[in-house]
Amino acid sequence: MFGYIVRRILYMLPVLLIISIISFFVLQLMPGDFTTAFRLNPRFSKAQIAQLEARYGLDKPAYVRYWKWITGIVTRGDFGYSLETQQPAFDALFKGRLGWTLLISFGTLIFTWTIAIPIGVFSATHQYSVGDYFLTFVGFIGISIPNFFFALVVLWFMVSVLNVGARGLGIGGLFDLQYVDAPWTWAKFVNFMWHLLPVLIVVGLAGTAGLIRYMRGQLLDTLGQQYVLTARSKGLKERLVIWKHAVRNAINPLITMLGMSLPDLFAGAFFAAIIMGLPTVERAFWNSLQRQDEYVVMSGLLFFAFLLQVGNLLGDVMLAWVDPRIRYD
Amino acid sequence: MTEKNTQAVEEKGVSQWQLAWRRFRRHKLGRAGAVIIGLFFLMVILAEFLSPYPHTEQFRDTTFAPPTKIHIFDENGKLTRPFVYGVARTLNTQLWQWEYREDRSQKFSIRFFVRGFPYKLLGFIPTNIHLFGVEGGGRFYLFGTDEMGRDIFSRVMMGSRVSMIIGLFVQVISLPIALLLGGVSGFYGRGVDMFLQRAFEIVMSIPTLPLWLALGLALPKGWSPTMRFFGLAGIMALIGWAGRARVVRGLVLAIRSMDFTEAARAAGAGDLRIIARHIVPNLLSYVIVSVTLGIPGAIIGESGLSFLGIGITEPMVSWGLLLSKANNASTIQSYPWLLIPGVFITVAVLAFNFLGDAMRDAFDPFRVV
């Protein structure tokens, strides 16, 4: 097992290297570069722009810049710097943001699983009932609704139906203005939860709907197995048959999804961050992308690719961990 | 026992396609999906006929007008043919917003097959007949208007073209790549297979959305809307093919070592004949299902990028672009009808998911009818 993990991690390195080359190439496809905004500004003379270019190394060919950047990472762990704020690229992406991103991601995961598993179990144990049909239909909608549209619908619901403006509650961001710089108090925590809940709903909807469907299907398969019949004929309580015998086995394949859903959370969190104004890594990435802040964008792409790889690895490892039949060697 | 036997006799002579069709017909949601998709494509074809106004026409005197109310009872409470009242507006000087109300002195009946702006039906029949409209200077905005006073209903109709067709387009680009590379990888095996498998893995480990964002921004600003449409389709096809190619590889590998393929090879059939007669027919059901389930992803992708302003640009319209007007809470609060295009995106995606699910079940040979 240990050898397998090491091999997988070693395999990640060349993959990430190739992805970094591809993304650098993609970045060069973009029209203009960081200095474009200065060029359009008549207050900057040609000489000043040339100076800027030289300072940022933008006058050198792309492959030279790529080589400098990648050797910096390999030899010094230096991911370059933000052309805009001059701070290291890592700080530009993560400083004060990574915590929120992780919190939202893991919060969504917990939210998704605690809601989806019981609903999936209910759907499977009440197959073809009205409740099952209803939940299946809602699940389909959850999978189909684009998350940016859902975010807008949630906003609409809050402002027009709950009428939050009239109740003195703000929307968007993670805090109301008066709490942003305030020390943590109970009131601040409540305010934070109020802002976090719609975010979790928006980011988690598609995952929840998908998980309900998988859980239902898996459990239906498991319930047809002979050991379930045996457990029932032993006179075991139905609750124990379902939760101890069936669910435990049905949940195994879903564990893989847990790891693999890591990058999926990005897409949901991305639109939520933009529409609801959250201080997350996704938003920093989008800002730097729009300004063509080269090294920050590159580091961001690399980070997301890394997340994808780690997610897949975690999925495989967790599956082996919960299912003794699976062996990697 | 006897019952089983007679059933088996009856089943004889039923092809795989007939079986699939039989299973599909029993799938209610799948049928509903197919009907909705049919209607949406009808909308694509007849967009101008369904639009009461040209989608680019700006009615500057009715910006951000709410959906017009349809009345079927007149002032005396008598049932009449549907009509709308005229529109009057006053400026709310506190919010600096126009407030609309009905001008009860003016009445316009809603008529069907009215004459309106000229267009070419199906692209070649010149006509000016539209499904519905009001005559005599009245205005009828079924879904309200946007910030330039353009009729959102007409824009949604026209937007269906980009939104529905881009899904098909992405499949047309990505599928041949997946079939070719996956097929070669599975059929020839060995070194080619090793190399291509690594390639699939690498493409699959590129994070999709961040790359789409970067590529969307990379589309040259000077491109015409049509060029951008093709560019967007290309962007979305760029990553999607890899996962598919991997499945195709697995399928081809399995079919290649099936007894009937081995028999054909033993009988002296060449590669081309084996591919055409044995491999392609067995891949077909996967291809159909994967195309149907791939379309909604492309629809969502296009609308997401257009929503961010890096997809389709004016004067072209798509549902995502229409939705981009409603990107903040205060706009949504004041003009909630701007959200209507999103309902169309959701219903289209839902219908494709229903249809794809039903087809997957229908083609599953291990499912008993």
Describe the structure concisely for a colleague.
The complex is a heterodimer of chains A (about 325) and B (about 375). With about 325 residues, chain A is mainly α. Chain A is built from 14 helices and no strands.
How would you describe the overall organization of this protein?
The complex is a heterodimer of chains A (329) and B (369). With 329 residues, chain A is mainly alpha-helical. Chain A contains 14 helices and no strands. With 369 residues, chain B is an alpha+beta fold. A four-stranded antiparallel beta sheet of chain B has the order 1-2-3-4. In chain B, helix 3 crosses helix 5, helix 5 packs parallel to helix 8 and helix 6 packs across helix 8. Chain B is elongated. The N terminus of chain B is likely disordered. Chains A and B meet through helix 1, helix 7, helix 8, helix 12 and helix 13 of A and helix 7, helix 10, helix 12 and helix 13 of B.
Topology:
The complex is a heterodimer of chains A (329) and B (369).
Chain A: H1 2-29, H2 36-39, H3 46-56, H4 62-76, H5 89-94, H6 98-125, H7 130-144, H8 147-161, H9 186-223, H10 226-233, H11 238-250, H12 252-276, H13 281-291, H14 294-322
Helix pairs in contact in A: 1-14, 6-7, 6-9, 6-12, 7-9, 8-9, 8-12, 9-11, 9-12, 10-11, 12-14, 13-14
Chain B: H1 2-11, H2 16-25, H3 28-45, H4 47-50, E1 71-73, E2 79-92, E3 97-121, E4 125-134, H5 152-188, H6 190-204, H7 208-218, H8 225-256, H9 259-266, H10 271-307, H11 319-323, H12 329-334, H13 340-363
Antiparallel strand pairs in B: 1-2, 2-3, 3-4
Helix pairs in contact in B: 2-13, 3-5, 3-13, 5-6, 5-8, 5-10, 5-13, 6-8, 7-8, 8-10, 9-10, 10-13
